[in-house]
Write a structure and sequence with these properties.
The chain has 291 residues and is α/β, with parallel strands linked by helices. 31% of the residues lie in helices and 29% in strands.
């Protein structure tokens, strides 16, 4: 079987701290992304690393129709996401434990039209592993966070200089970032300017999420759509949902229409602190709100 999209990333045990509450959720970009892709009808695979005692995350994906390929490790990745204010773009991330780095043999037998790498930190998916992934001839998408984030001595995730930037982005078809990450790498707070600079590093298309919506630059045109939602409950997984939704819809649609599906799916996801679990009918209804 050839999959439409394969998500790669460590599962994360997330502790989310806001001014009003503390809660524990199953996280990981691959997890949010795989739920979004399968909800949209994609033939979906997920490759992950986690402790076997957290196998329920794999079982949950399988129950939705995702083919999961886990590697069991000594620890699952643990992540604490601290939101000191009501601004969901303002957060501190702490990672005391990691499930470790991916190896090329974890994807060598999988055929997929698109591979989307949703790493948490730089060492989780090394550039040499990305080179091996590129040899499969598939389209590659990466989330910028997993390549600019490193850990300081207090286990706090920080953005740091990425010397392999142009080598990695030269292998990449889709680059997904949020506004904060885009500004860090380019020095530009204006999203359009940042997208054009990111594009110049090598990717074919750039996707940037921010608190109000999503922007796509395909090298010729800028496309922007807002999030249309009734309430914000789940900030975590916003970009993962948006990236997976966009790259899957791009297999059959142009950027102008793909971004509407991505914005709609992400809006629905943000109304809950779980991965996207809406029906296709609910997603189509939200897409219909976009002109």
């Amino acid at each position: 079987m050839e999959y439409d999209i394969t998500l790669i990333g460590n599962y994360t045990k997330d502790k989310i701290v806001t001014p009003t509450e503390t809660k524990y959720v199953d996280g990981g970009g691959f997890n949010y992304g795989a739920h979004a892709a399968i909800a949209l009808g994609a033939k979906t695979a997920a490759i992950t690393r986690l402790k076997e005692s957290d196998k329920h995350v794999v079982d949950n994906l399988v129950s939705t129709g995702v083919d999961a390929f886990p590697t069991y490790t000594k620890n699952s990745t643990h992540m604490e996401l601290i939101y000191p204010t009501d601004d969901f773009d303002d957060r501190v991330l702490v990672m005391p434990k990691s499930a470790g780095s991916f190896t090329s043999d974890q994807f060598k037998n999988i055929k997929s039209k698109v591979f989307l790498v949703n790493a948490s930190i730089r060492d989780e998916f090394k550039v040499e592993t990305l080179v091996d992934l590129k040899k499969k001839g598939s389209l590659i998408g990466i989330d910028l966070q997993g390549f600019i984030r490193t850990i300081d001595k207090n286990n706090i995730l920080i953005n740091s200089n990425w010397k392999e930037k142009e080598e990695a982005l030269g292998l990449t078809h889709y680059l997904k970032a949020d506004g904060v990450e885009a500004e860090f790498l380019t020095g530009e707070s204006d999203l359009i300017s940042a997208a054009k600079i990111l594009k110049s590093y090598g990717p074919k298309e750039v996707i940037i999420t921010h608190k109000d919506g999503v922007l796509v630059y395909d090298g010729e045109n800028i496309y922007q759509e807002p999030f249309i939602l009734d309430k914000i409950i789940g900030r975590s997984g916003r970009g993962d949902t948006c990236g997976a939704s966009y790259v899957y819809k791009r297999l059959t649609l142009n950027p102008k229409n793909s971004i509407k599906w991505a914005a709609a799916a992400t809006s629905l996801k943000m109304e809950s602190d779980t991965p996207l679990k809406n029906t296709m009918h609910e997603i189509e209804n939200r897409v219909s709100k976009y002109k």
